[in-house]
Amino acid sequence: MTIVFIGLLIFALTLGAGFLGIWVNRTLPAELQSDSARAVVGQVAGLVSLLLALVLGTLIGTSFAFFGGQKTAIETLSSQVLMLDQALAQYGPETMPAREKLKASVQGAYETFWGEGEHDPKLLLVSIPLASALATKTFLSSLKPETDVQKQAVAAANAFTNQIEQGRVLMDLQVASHPVNPGLVIVLVVWAVILFFGMGLFAQSNGLVVSALTFGALCVAFAVFLILELGLPYTGMFRVPGAALHEALVNIAK
Questions:
Q1: CA 29 – CA 23 distance, rounded (Å)
Q2: What is the pLDDT of residues 134-189, one digit of tens each?
Q3: Quick one: which of 137, 131, 129 has its CA closest to 165?
Q4: Cα–Cα distance between 166 and 153 in angstroms, integer?
Q5: Cα 196 from Cα 212, distance rounded (Å)
Q6: Which end of the chain has the lower number of beta carbons within 10 A, N or C?
Q7: Which residues contact 188 (CB under 8 A, 6 or more apart)?
Q8: How far apart are CA 59 and CA 56, in angstroms?
Q9: How far is the first Cα of the chain from the last one, in angstroms, to the nearest whole number?
Q10: Which residues, other chains included, contact 252 with Cβ-Cβ below 8 Å and sequence gap of 6+?
Q11: Read out DSSP for 6-22?
Q12: Where are the alpha helices (DSSP H) in 92-126?
């Protein structure tokens, strides 16, 4: 089920609840359409509206913070990749195959998530950075540094490899666990359905009322869409900018 479909479904449910309220209004007996009934329903609708606004704002903020955190992680990872490449270059020409392999790995990741091809979520599995870091550490352990400069280069390369591994694993684990629990989204939808039903319950059907309900349902659906979409920073419609990784890619193995 795509996020776009979920948004359309929420739009249909909330708008349908509003229309259902308008229809029920026509069948209500006169004693249930008193001023006190309108006041109570209006107060409950106001309470639900306040709760809905607070929780929607909080969850959008949570998802946006998660999205921003992934952007920062990509920028940090890009700098660490460059530093690893520089450490390998400092060792000497013997490390050129490893530098080229590092560039190919970064190129593949960039083209997968920021290129024109289809995104492959499998590249976000934790096993990939673990295997890549193991291969790099194996290569570094095979080197035989002779000078102090080479020894320092190997030590720095090992340190940057560990940082990249930790950063990649953390990024993948964060993506695997969505920042917003789906149960909270379901609660929000239930609240929105109740709210729109209450708003339509004592409304007289006309063009302005229908337009207002439609616009409100669209806002709720788009808010939920943002909550879910920002939780997919690499495979969603709004992806984390890859400019930092591209800049690193340009300068690797030069």
A1: 13
A2: 888 888 888 888 888 888 999 999 999 999 888 888 888 888 777 888 888 899 99
A3: 129
A4: 20
A5: 11
A6: N
A7: 52, 55, 56, 59, 220, 224
A8: 5
A9: 44
A10: 81, 82, 85, 99, 102, 103, 106
A11: HHHHHHHHHHHHHHHHH
A12: 96-114
Q: 46 near 123, Cβ under 8 Å?
A: no
From 179, 156, 238, 186, select the one nearest 9 (Cα to Cα).
186
Burial class, 152, CB count within 10 angstroms (exposed 0-12 / middle 13-18 / buried 19+): middle
Q: What are the residue boundaries of the structural domains of the chain, listed by start?
A: 3-26+37-114+122-251
User: What pLDDT score was predicted for residue 217?
Assistant: 93
Above 60 in pLDDT, residue 1?
no
Six token digits for residue 96: 């050129």
- Amino acid letter for position 125: L
Q: What is the DSSP string of 205-229?
A: P-HHHHHHHHHHHHHHHHHHHHHHH
- Identify the residue whose tokens are 């952007």: 71
How many Cβ atoms sit within 10 Å of the Cβ of residue 144? 7
Tokens of 105: 């790995």
